[in-house]
Amino acid sequence: MNLKNIGLYSALIGGITAIIGALEVIFVFTGTDSWIPADLFGGLALLVIAAVYLSGNGELISKQEEGLSFALTGTILTMVFGSLYTLIMGTDYLMYLLGEADEFLIITELRPEILLLVATLPLARYLIKREE
Amino acid sequence: MKKTLSDMQPGEKGTVLSVSGDNTVQRRIRDMGIVRGTEIEVVRRAPFGDPVEFRLKGYNLSLRREEAACVSVEV
Amino acid sequence: MAGEKETVIRVALIGNPNVGKTAIFNNLTGSRQHVGNWPGVTVEKKTGRCTHREIEMEIVDLPGTYSLEADAIDERIARDYIIDEKPDVVVDIVDASNIERNLYLTLLLLELGANVVVALNKMDIAASKNYEFDIEELSLLLGVPVIPTVATTQSGMGELRDAILSAAVRREKHRKVTIGYSDDIEARIKEVEELILTDTYLANTYPPRWLAIKLLEKDESVMDRISSSPKRDQILEVTRRVEVNADTFAEERYRAIDRILHASLAGRRDHALTTSDLLDRVFLHKRLGIPVFLILMWATFQFAFTVSEPFMVMLERVFGWLGGLLGDPTTPLISLWADGICGGLGFVLVFIFPIMFLFIALAILEDSGYLPRAAFVMDRLMYRIGLHGRSFIPMLMGFGCNLPAIMATRSIGDEKDRLITILINPLMSCGARLPVYVLIAGALFGTYAGSAIFSMYVLGIVLAILMALLFRRFIPGLRGKPAPFIMELPPYARPAIKSVLLYMWSRAVVFLKKAGTILLGGALVLWFMASFPWGREIESSYAGILGHTLEPLLAPLGFDWMAAIALFFGFLAKEIVVETFGILYGVGGEDAITGAVAAHMTPVTGLAFMAFTLIYLPCLATLGMVKAETGSWKWTGFMVLYQLVLAYVVAGIIVLTGNLITGVL
């Protein structure tokens, strides 16, 4: 991948992150019940991550190396949140086994953040390779 | 031109002339390698404008503007 | 100590912060470590042992330090250890990728006459910056062995151990090479040194050249050390006469470092765009820096307090099961086992999980290099309220649990900054207070319950800020300005799992020791007061008697003796307040307790009671940790006192204004 493609890919990820984040926040107020959870702080976190991705696009598309800052940090943040929600999925399952939670539904546990982590893997691979 | 470190803008470079201020601050600044003749560059300010990040002797250091005002530099 | 035959070689590790000193210490000692405190202070002291070629070494990890002057506590510990304890070998860990400033400490150690071995660490990072060292030349110029290492991959550890052994055998006190100053200054040093040599006590106690230099630098703590010497006036006369000071010496040392590096290091081409620079463009970004910090904190919070929850539940159940082994608590002895020991440990030990998870997260943040950045972006805000940028994370974590939050204040360097952060931390409303708010607000405020609960969090923050400002102004020992913000922003690094886990475990052990002693003891006292005289109702137990005694004092706030007892037991753990109300009102089940509260309290008293619960005392376990972390009964007592008074005053104000308003309405 060259810098321009990185820019396009991170714009795509950033865009999707922004939409999901906005929906998570909106659903808190509308009370919508959907696959995307209503989660104020979780949604705001996604909006921040999206802002990080999108801030680097200008530089990347004009092929400035500095733009990698934003793709790199965005990827790290997506990784952090994707891993966190994966851990929370495990936590919720344990609580369910312990009888502290009434139900355990994979559909509510498989948060969009986890899927974003998967989507960001190609970016992560490129950045790790570059580092070495 | 003579300035203090706190007056310098991000991207500006200078050479340290002297360090003033109370004993502890003066000593701790000195221990971090800010002595006469040290070349120092302002990297950026923190989001609220303070503290400030500097680059010297191949590493990055942050000072509050209050402390940076103790260092005079030739720009 | 000279001449004494020692079978164990005593080694001290020293170095700047962020040089990988802990990693080298872990590599050398493996699991043979002991963590304690330096005498009289709360700075952590780590010692460990290792056997190499059948020779036993005892390794002390000195605090990370940039220099060896005595006015900062870490530096004084390091310096006094080397001067007074005279370790056989001092291993100076130098960051090869940041060598210029790192060598400053090396020169100070050489001046001190220490038997130095230099571990030139982070050679991999130096290589990635295209640094090419001439190790032999460097070793020749410094006059001490230089061993290249990469602590993260254990490379160079065998050579380092060998070098320590041979240095210990050589015990070379007077090296042939000294780092020379300019002729003019050398002449002054000589003059003072000769005076020192005429006083045999001074000459035998301190390295004379070092003492001469320190006196010329006009180092106050060293001036004290010669105050009883008969030559004192003569020496001071010379040092006063000459026009050199500490600045002169520092400049000359850096000039010497320049010369050394010029001859021994090639390929220095600083400031290509590194990954660290790339990351800092976002993490320290003008607009993104703070939001990114906040979401990382939110993730840390979730990790520490949500992911640890099932483990807490499991441990509670284990203790519940253990407590039930002897049957119903019908005799004092069974009750001691079930309610006292198992119940007490159950309430105290569960903290181990949030501690472990929080310190895994904090270790990752620290080892990755992010923590100083967090302090950098938050410092302005914290400085306004008289605190340091490093105070923010412990404050925030207080909303989860005050106990690990108080343990997290260790990262604050300055003692005053740290004390204030500890003292106000319990005002951050922790998770265990929430059930109390939910009960009372749910019973009394109906649809406004959420707002009432939220107002407690805001109240806590406001009080914390007020107290911080007040302490800074009026309390002796805390008065003054926050410590200066002179902080290195080290390059980012990938955290190593082993060091993260070791760090977490060292924190967990600190807590476990307290839990087994002071905390269990406190829990047993509370159990005794609730259960004796044996066989009576809780109302006529010692705790009940105490509640009745306190009632007149709490009556102006509208609290009855039952509220007093509930608060008393809330000291064991805040959430017990809910349970105690259930027992006292003689009802079971959430709805019944809610109904009983509604019958016993007015909204105004209820709000006052919530505020009192927030402020009056942290739980027993937290208070025990305050004692451990401040190392002082005085400050622990001060905290208890100020919080009780503050709780009373705030609850009083709520009742007064509340009654006024309801009276008008």
Major sheet description of chain A: none
The counted number of beta strands of chain A is: 0
Which regions of chain B have little confidence, pLDDT < 50, spanning 5+ residues? Answer: none
Biggest chain pair interface: B-C, 36 and 42 residues
Average pLDDT metric of chain B: 93
Based on helices, strands and strand pairing, what is the structural class of chain A?
Answer: mainly alpha
Name the overall outline of chain A: elongated
Instruction: Return the CATH topology of chain B.
Output: SH3 type barrels
Unreliably modeled segments of chain A: none
User: What summary fits the major beta sheet of chain B?
Assistant: 6 strands, antiparallel
User: How much beta of chain A, percentage-wise?
Assistant: under 5%
Taking the alpha carbons of the first and last residues of chain B, their distance comes to 5 Å
The percent of residues in helical segments of chain A reads over 70%
Please report which band the strand proportion of chain B falls in: under 5%, 5-15%, 15-25%, 25-35%, 35-45% or over 45%.
35-45%
Using the CA coordinates, give the radius of gyration of chain B: 11 Å
Structural class of chain B: alpha+beta
Query: Which radius of gyration of chain A do the C-alpha atoms yield?
Result: 16 Å
SSE topology string of chain A: HHHHHHH
The number of helices of chain A is 7
Biggest sheet of chain B: strands side by side, in what order? 1-6-2-3-4-5
* Helical content band of chain B: 10-25%
General description of the model:
Chain A has one domain. In chain A, 77% of the residues lie in helices and 0% in strands. Chain A contains seven helices and no strands. In chain A, helix 4 crosses helix 7 (121-131). The mean pLDDT of chain A is 91. Chain B has one domain (2-74): SH3 type barrels. Chain B has 75 residues and is α+β, with helices and mostly antiparallel strands. Chain B has two helices and six strands. With 665 residues, chain C is an alpha/beta fold. Chain C is built from 31 helices and ten strands. The termini of chain C are far apart. Chain B binds chain C through residues 18-19, 23-25, 27-33, 35-38, 44-51, 53, 55, 57-64, 66-67, and chain C through 66-67, 69, 71-72, 97-101, 104, 246-247, 250-251, 254-255, 268, 270-271, 280, 284-287, 289-290, 372, 376-377, 379-381, 383, 389, 484-490. Strand 5 (59-63) of chain B pairs antiparallel with strand 10 (487-488) of chain C, so a sheet runs across the interface.
